[in-house]
Design a protein that fits this description.
The protein is of the alpha/beta class. It is built from 12 helices and 11 strands. Strands 2-10-9-3-6-4-5 form a 7-stranded mixed beta sheet, with helices on both faces. The longest helix is centred in the N-terminal third of the chain and has 23 residues. The two termini are 35 Å apart.
């Protein structure tokens, strides 16, 4: 794997697992409300305008040309950046990236993911995908407890990972929020999000939807699947969960939900980090399943959550170097302020 950004690697070596005196993890609890959703949201209108373009490109443009088309779309649609983008640009520059053009490239990969979804729905998508680390999946299956797949939030993970696992014969059930898809409104959930969910369910064994009124129910279902030696995938993020932990990436902090390590610990299943990215020089997608995160070395639950989150964050570094424009969470990085 290429190390495209030496500055990022140096930052990791200096500020990785050993932070020095006074630096600590941050864990907080929050109360999730099941508030009423909007009937229609501005992002619904925006996506409805983009949808025909995504469909046309998916059918008429060869896959090798999608990247260039999406970059052109982003350049035309982003003449200037809004004030809220200034923090993201500053973060990109702190990691040695140029700034404005890099932000456009990050956004372009999101458009490309939508084109992948449309291609799958309209005519089937058959990408070149290399699944690496299959031995970790096989070892988990042979142990009889399944595994929790903690999937890093990169642009192409949602569909490519499911395709790779299905091709290799692994049954993976995905835990997701009710708004999973393109928008969060009632209109979007009813009419737009099924486009994406339908594409993913062609390859996923099933979907476990989180019920915010009874969040324990989805975790109990996930535990049942693990006991049956199935695989459960959870995308890393802070959208759900009552317990959030801040881990460090470089000189910044990122908050993630603790559900994946907690579920793996309770179920006695391995926790396998998964990273998905594309080599732009060849067009091939890579789904990388890494060795399990060691949860047994921490007796205390809080230490276990903290240690797992930081190890997962540390493992991002080589992939951020190789695929910096494909990570979805640049805007979620904040200045690290330990509590």
């Amino acid at each position: 794997m290429r190390f495209a950004n030496r500055r990022l690697f140096t930052c990791h070596r200096k500020h990785g697992a050993r932070w020095g005196p006074g630096l600590e993890f941050s864990i907080r609890k929050r109360k999730r409300a099941s508030g009423a959703r909007k009937i229609f949201a501005p992002e619904d209108f925006k996506f409805l305008l983009q949808l025909p373009a995504f469909a046309i490109v998916s059918c008429l443009v060869p896959e090798r040309g999608w990247q260039a088309v999406c970059r052109s779309m982003e350049r035309l649609g982003s003449v200037s950046f809004a004030a809220q983008d200034s923090g993201v640009l500053q973060t990109l520059r702190s990691f040695g990236l140029a700034g404005d053009d890099d932000l456009r490239r990050v956004r372009a990969t999101r458009h490309e993911h939508h084109i992948q979804i449309m291609r799958e729905r309209l005519g089937g998508w058959n990408p070149a995908i290399a699944l690496q680390g299959i031995e970790h999946l096989e070892a988990a299956q042979n142990a009889g407890h399944g595994a929790v797949l903690w999937i890093a939030h990169f642009s192409f993970n949602a569909l490519a990972a499911k395709i790779a696992f299905a091709r290799a014969g692994f049954e993976v059930f995905h835990v997701s929020r009710p708004e999973h898809g393109f928008t969060k409104s009632r209109f979007g959930i009813r009419f737009l999000n099924p486009i994406r969910i339908g594409a993913e369910l062609r390859y996923a064994a099933g979907r476990v939807v989180i019920d915010r009124a009874d969040p324990a129910a989805s975790m109990n279902e996930a535990r049942r699947l693990l006991r049956a030696n199935k695989f459960v995938s959870i995308t890393a993020g802070a959208w759900e969960g009552e317990v959030l932990v801040t881990a460090r990436i470089g000189e910044s902090g990122i908050e993630v939900a603790s559900g994946a390590p907690r579920l793996a610990r309770i179920a006695g299943a391995p926790l396998l980090p998964v990273f998905v990215g594309r080599d732009d020089s060849t067009g091939q997608l890579h789904v990388v399943v890494e060795r399990p995160i060691d949860l047994a070395r921490h007796r205390d639950k809080a230490e276990m959550i903290q240690g797992a989150a930081q190890e997962f964050a540390d493992r991002h570094l080589p992939y951020l170097q190789s695929w910096p424009h494909q990570w979805r969470d640049w805007e979620k990085l904040t200045a690290f302020t330990p509590r």
